[in-house]
Design brief:
The complex is a heterotrimer of chains A (about 525), B (about 375) and C (about 300).
Chain A lengths: L7 E10 L2 E11 L4 E5 L6 H9 L6 E6 L2 E3 L4 H6 L2 E4 L11 H6 L10 H15 L14 H14 L4 E5 L7 H16 L3 E6 L2 H7 L2 E6 L2 E6 L1 H6 L2 H12 L3 H7 L21 E10 L8 E10 L3 E5 L6 H9 L6 E6 L2 E2 L5 H6 L2 E4 L3 H5 L6 H5 L10 E2 L2 E2 L1 H15 L15 H12 L6 E5 L7 H15 L5 E5 L3 H7 L2 E6 L2 E7 L4 H11 L4
Parallel strand pairs in A: 3-8, 3-9, 6-7, 7-8, 13-20, 13-21, 16-19, 19-20
Antiparallel strand pairs in A: 1-2, 1-4, 4-5, 9-10, 11-12, 11-14, 14-15, 17-18, 21-22
Chain B lengths: L6 E2 L6 H29 L4 H14 L1 H26 L7 H22 L2 H18 L2 H10 L3 H21 L32 H18 L1 H11 L1 H6 L4 H28 L11 H10 L4 H25 L5 H26 L4 E2 L5 H7 L1
Antiparallel strand pairs in B: 1-2
Helix pairs in contact in B: 1-14, 2-3, 2-13, 3-8, 3-11, 3-12, 3-13, 4-5, 4-7, 4-11, 5-11, 6-7, 6-11, 8-9, 8-11, 9-11, 12-13, 12-14
Chain C lengths: L6 H30 L7 H19 L2 H25 L4 H24 L23 H6 L3 H19 L1 H11 L1 H6 L4 H28 L10 H12 L3 H15 L1 H8 L5 H19 L19
Helix pairs in contact in C: 1-6, 1-9, 1-10, 1-11, 1-12, 2-3, 2-4, 2-9, 2-10, 3-4, 3-9, 6-7, 6-11, 7-9, 10-11, 11-13
Chain lengths: ~525, ~375, ~300
């Protein structure tokens, strides 16, 4: 622990966008050979801070120092030249290009492609990190973990001395996480400074050497190595709570907000009654090109009054499963029954009318039509139906009344009813989608990653709604999520999806977490 | 509400200011283009003032000119409506000229025979329907390919459009060929069987048909569930599928409606002005109408004054060009310039907007920046 | 039917394919570059038309067809500059700007032509053709394929050059990245807008050259609207070619054969109406699309302006 200048230092960085202060005088120093975790809930400003470092945004105030020298980073190229590499949460690789082509991107010196050089570098760096990648395969066919490894290799090849990883474990299996930890250990030995962005305290505890906590755009504290190594997880959690909510009264008042950081809550089991509301029998749903679908016959039953979860790492067949049930994708075998009625041959609209609902994870892409108003999006699945349309004619007042009621009930923050949905924030959008899907007598609601990327308050609201949906025993929910803690909190039973196969269904009893983990690994990804 | 959720209000702007800026953004491009065109005329040694004066005079102020302009408007309005219906649904129907000519050939070919057999009004109505049907039929191949197989309609409508232009010629030179003329063309519908004039004028009924059709289209778009389905399809194909809309049906019907309106435009032109169709005739309205339709921001109401403006420029400009010893195509340049200026003023407008403040919940603002925070 | 197999017909067919196909080749290769980079040039026809006009005027002035070709390239570049400013840099809608370009160029060239040559109707002399020592004397194929003006062979060489650039150079890699996922390219530190700018300018140059070829070599004169839809055909060829220069060349050749087939068929004594013959290439495309009915394999970021930080 010498007194060499920090590899990279951010001093009093401030960044605001119209109407919001994303970073408020945040200071951070990261040393060589350490993994520094940047912890904070969604919306705390972690990604913005790192974007400033990576050259995607310009800070409004403060300065950046690399190896003690003051620098300005005007664009990603300058960041790369300074040795700062960023691995984004959503892959910045090009799926149709091969591994080698992706590696060569940005190495634009000269006319010809230096495939030989790239190949050599790939082999060398892969050996160093202990990973293997086939250079000629299309990146889209790689698993998400392998793609991430490729991005790290690429960052190293560009000479990165500072590596920023943005929520890297969100797409990994437990085995993949282990692989990442091994890679990180290697990187530390090479003297890299690693910044690890996460919103999961447990992860920061397991992986980080030091930790900085952000809340609402401000740095609320840094926890040093000695404390991190010396304390237990519970002690650390208490410390973080104290940092985020100093003062007794404030702390008590905000305990609800902290639920994201609590350990998994046990959920009381509800007895299932009667015939299943949703029944899948030996269903096959092929994935698109390069995508994992439901490749082995899947059977699952969901009963009224229960919440069934689908756990698994992203990209193991979740989207095909959801779309197959909803009718947006062709099911090539098996049967789907809704309250006894076979729906496999029915259109999307017909299934909706029978009470099937689908809260998609692609809010902006398909959940709403961005140019249309909030009011119209709230009735978009009832186009042509009374009371909003009579003989095909639009009844504007009915639509507005309905919209106003939903806006009030779900606290949807929109300037007006006519605001285009595309200008709403992620959390508000999700409220619109949920509000729409839960109206007009839902019987079975499929939720795909319902709290992904949402702030704590909206997350709580959505989870609350799921619980309320099944309260009276007339409806059921199928919750697909990559967040195991969320599933354990909400669900009565959890199905495990791995490599397009249903590995098993686990009752939500003490020990469920381990059982689910075991089933996920058993699938053999990576 | 905590401070973090306080709404950020925009400074209120006086209504009069907003109306003025609205008008400026609407008409500004036209004014700029006229000025730029005028400067070009000067450079070429012509007098822009007298050019524009003649245009207005011959196209608008004279009785005959005004009538001609209104007559010219009829097919243009119908064709614009056809384009708007497709574009609003996100469907690029760029084979309009082919649809137009096929319908024109069929209507002209069947016109004289039908007039001889059926009562006048029935024949007229039937011919209009035939024109609509012919235009609609010519969209089937592209629309089905798009709806069922996702084939890019830019290519297919273009190809089928080119085929249509040539097929129309084949029809005129083949089954519909008149043996009473030296030039290859269809039989001529006698003048007394053409669309009647509006009383007291020499403007044929076509304009009434056009305005009625436009009203119907506007009603469909704004007040019916079908119109909303099309709007949704145009706004986001994926969202339309997700919402359970019968997207295949909507694509085919929207295309058919689009082609049908264009076919009706052809019928009106044939039945109102010409009475016959010559081989190799192609008024090629399509390209300029794209421009007008974009300028009108795909709004059926706005397109009416724009088409009127264009009609006056066409008729009056024809005379002005003749006197200035220039080809008619100055009009094309003007329309192109108007589009450029429109694009430019749009850019200026949106740039200013993001710099100012907007009414938003405090924590999140534009989706763009918020995307990085999630 | 046997008259179709005469040497006159075949020679005329091949010759026509090359003559009519060359402008398509230039323009389609150019459009391929743009499309691979994510830009759709509906105004391609305008670039060709302006190239035709510029090329003709300068060739007429200087008496040299080579300088005329150079001027055609410059003319195409100027029009492409409009696309760069409005679409790449300002991020406006590519289809709207493309139509604006086409209309403006059509009107402008018609006006300028009337002002300059309204009464004089000048014509250019024939462009010298090449004689390849042994190949030109091969019967049928020889003079029709190997006896064309030198510019044609430059075009054919461009096919190979394009292939090499697209698949073997950094420029090509970056171009394709800009078309598929510009955000990834930006994160890699490459200036996406610059890549697209260069791509569009290259398209303009090639399209202008194609138009210049039509005026200088084929017609020997400039006539308003003389490109007559050729630019749109080039766009289709580029889309169907899916970024493979060889397929683009094949497409250009086939369409060229069909477009010029009226003359060749006349020579063969076959009496098929011109309209039918001219329909054939389009019908073939449609049939091919129906039979293969796949999604056109276009880069995902086609026609979407790139804004950093945007979705």
């Amino acid at each position: 622990m010498g007194e060499a200048p920090a590899a990279v230092e951010l001093r009093s960085i401030s960044k605001s966008f119209p109407g919001v202060l994303a970073n408020d005088e945040v200071s951070l120093a990261v040393r060589r050979g350490e993994v520094h975790c940047l912890l904070g809930e969604n919306g705390a400003g972690k990604s913005t801070l790192m974007s400033v470092l990576a050259g995607l945004h310009q800070p409004d105030g403060g300065e950046i120092r690399v190896d003690g020298r003051r620098v300005t980073i005007g664009c990603p190229r300058e960041a790369i030249d300074l040795g700062i590499g960023m691995v984004h949460q959503h892959s910045s690789l090009i799926p149709v290009f091969t591994v080698l082509e992706n590696l060569l991107l940005g190495r634009g010196k000269g006319l010809r492609l230096k495939t030989g050089e790239a190949l050599a570098a790939l082999n060398e760096l892969s050996a160093l990190l202990g990973v293997t990648v086939d250079p000629s395969v299309q990146v889209g066919r790689l698993s998400l973990g392998e793609q991430q490894q490729l991005e790290i290799v690429r960052a190293l090849w560009r000479g990165s001395r500072v590596l920023i990883l943005d929520e890297p474990t969100s797409m990994l299996t437990p085995k993949g996480v282990e692989g990442l930890q091994r890679v990180l250990a290697q990187l530390k030995r090479q003297g890299l400074a690693v910044i690890f962005i996460t919103h999961k305290l447990r992860e920061a505890f397991d992986i980080g050497d030091r930790m900085s906590v952000l809340r609402r755009g401000r740095l609320v504290g840094t926890i040093d190595e000695a404390t991190m190594r010396g304390g237990t997880f519970a002690e650390l959690r208490q410390m973080v709570v104290d940092l985020m909510f100093p003062g007794e009264a404030a702390r008590l008042a905000r305990v609800a907000e902290m639920r994201g950081f609590e350990g998994p809550m046990r959920h009381t089991r509800r007895p299932a009654a009667g015939p299943p509301l949703l029944e899948l029998s030996d269903v096959l749903v092929p994935g698109a090109r390069g995508e994992v679908g439901i490749d082995e016959p899947l059977s699952l039953a969901v009963y009224a009054g229960e919440v069934v979860g689908v756990a698994g790492v992203d990209g193991n067949g979740q989207r095909p499963l959801a779309e197959g049930i909803a009718g947006q994708r062709r099911v090539t075998a098996g049967d789907i029954r809704l309250a006894g009625t076979t729906v496999r041959a029915l259109s999307i609209g017909a299934r909706q009318r029978l009470g099937l609902r689908y809260v998609t994870d692609d809010r902006l892409g398909e959940g709403v039509a961005p140019p249309l108003s909030v009011a119209l999006n709230l009735v978009s699945k009832r186009i042509g139906a009374p009371p909003f349309w009579v003989h095909g004619r639009t009844r504007k007042t009915a639509i507005e009344r309905h919209a106003r009621a939903l806006v009030a009930e779900y606290d949807i923050m929109t300037p007006t009813l006519d605001t285009p949905a595309g200008s709403l924030s992620g959390g508000t959008l999700q409220k619109v989608v949920v509000a729409r899907e839960l109206s007009f007598g839902p019987k079975v609601v499929v939720f795909n990653k319902p709290t992904h990327g949402l702030d704590v308050k909206t997350t709580a609201m959505v989870r609350d709604r799921i619980g309320r949906l099944v309260e009276d025993g007339a409806a059921a929910a199928l919750v697909i999520s990559t967040d195991l803690e969320e599933l354990l909190e909400l669900c009565d039973r959890v199905a495990v999806l791995s490599c397009g196969r249903l590995m098993g269904v686990v009752e939500n009893l003490p020990g469920a977490e381990q059982e689910i983990g075991a089933l996920m690994i058993g699938g053999g990804d990576e | 509400m905590s401070e973090a959720e306080t709404r950020v209000a925009s400074p209120p702007r006086a209504t009069s200011v907003r109306v003025l800026t609205g008008i400026w953004h609407g008409f500004g491009p036209i004014v700029y283009a006229l000025v730029a065109g005028g400067m070009l005329l000067l450079l070429m040694g012509r007098d822009p003032i007298s050019f524009y004066a003649t245009t207005i005079d011959s196209g608008l102020l004279s009785q005959a000119g005004l009538e001609q302009s209104i007559i010219r408007m009829a097919p243009l309005l119908l064709m614009s409506a056809g384009l708007i219906v497709a574009f609003q649904a996100g469907l690029w129907n760029i084979g309009g000229d082919g649809q137009f000519l096929i319908a024109a050939a069929v209507v002209a070919g069947l016109g004289a025979p039908l007039m001889g057999v059926l009562p006048y009004w029935l024949a007229l109505a039937l011919l209009c329907v035939i024109g609509f049907a012919a235009g609609a039929t010519w969209t089937i191949v592209p629309s089905v390919l798009k709806a069922w197989y996702g084939v890019n309609e830019i290519i297919t409508t273009l190809m089928v459009g080119f085929i249509g232009i040539r097929l129309a010629n084949l029809l005129i030179k083949g089954p519909f060929l008149s043996d009473r003329s030296l030039v290859p063309q269809t039989d001529v519908i006698p003048f007394k069987y053409l669309l009647p004039y509006l009383p007291g004028t020499r403007i044929h009924l076509g304009i009434v048909v056009a305005l009625a059709a436009l009203t119907a289209v506007h009603y469909m778009q704004t007040r019916t569930s079908y119109g909303l389905s099309l709007r949704m399809l145009g706004a986001s194909h994926k969202a339309a599928v997700h919402a359970g809309l019968d997207v295949k049906r909507d694509i085919v019907t929207a295309f058919a409606l689009s082609g049908g309106l264009i076919g009706l435009a052809a019928a009106v032109e044939v039945l109102g002005v010409w009475g016959y169709v010559r081989a190799d005739w192609n008024p090629a309205f399509g390209l300029t109408l794209f421009a007008l339709v974009f300028l009108a921001r795909l709004n059926v109401k706005l397109v009416i004054p724009l088409v009127a403006f264009f009609a006056v420029l066409s008729i009056g400009g024809h005379e002005a060009a003749r006197r200035a010893d220039l080809p008619n195509d100055f009009l094309l340049l003007l329309i192109g310039l108007i589009l450029f200026f429109m694009v430019f003023t749009e850019w200026v407008r949106t740039k200013r907007w993001t710099a100012g403040m907007r009414l938003r919940p405090a924590r999140r603002t534009s989706k763009r920046e918020a995307a990085l925070d999630e | 039917m046997s008259s179709l197999l005469t040497s006159e017909f075949l020679a005329a067919l091949i010759s026509g394919a090359v003559i009519a196909g060359a402008p398509l080749l230039f323009a389609a290769l150019g459009e391929t570059v743009s499309e691979q980079g994510g830009v759709l040039n509906i105004g391609l026809e305008g670039m060709m038309l302006f190239g035709a006009y510029g090329g003709f005027v300068v060739a007429h002035w200087t008496g040299s067809s080579w300088i005329g070709f150079l001027a055609a390239i410059v003319a195409g570049l100027l029009v492409a500059l409009l696309m760069v400013v409005f679409c790449v840099r300002m991020g406006r809608d590519q289809i709207v700007v493309g139509i604006a370009i086409l209309l403006a160029v059509e009107g402008l060239t018609s006006l300028l032509h009337a002002a300059q040559f309204g009464t004089s109707y000048p014509r250019l002399g024939a462009v010298p053709t090449v004689r390849v020592p042994w190949l030109t004397d091969v019967p049928i194929v020889g003079s029709s394929f190997f006896g064309q003006p030198a510019i044609v062979y430059i075009g054919i060489a461009l096919v190979g050059v394009s292939w090499w650039v697209l698949s073997r150079t950094n420029a090509g890699l970056h171009l394709r990245a800009a078309g598929w996922k510009p955000a990834a390219l930006d994160n890699a530190g490459v200036d996406v807008l610059r890549v697209r700018t260069v791509a569009v300018l290259v398209t303009g140059a090639l399209a202008g050259l194609g138009g210049g070829y039509m005026a200088i070599v084929v017609a020997g004169v400039f006539v308003p609207f003389m490109t007559g839809g050729v630019g749109f055909i080039a766009i289709v060829i580029a889309m169907l070619g899916r970024g493979r220069p060889l397929w683009v060349a094949v497409g250009a050749f086939l369409f060229g054969a069909a477009l010029s087939s009226a003359t060749s068929l006349q020579l063969a004594g076959v009496n098929v109406p011109t309209d039918v013959v001219q329909m054939l290439p389009f019908v073939t495309v449609i049939l091919a699309l129906i039979v293969f009915a796949r999604q056109s394999y276009l880069p995902s970021a086609l026609a979407t302006p790139y804004v950093r930080g945007g979705r």
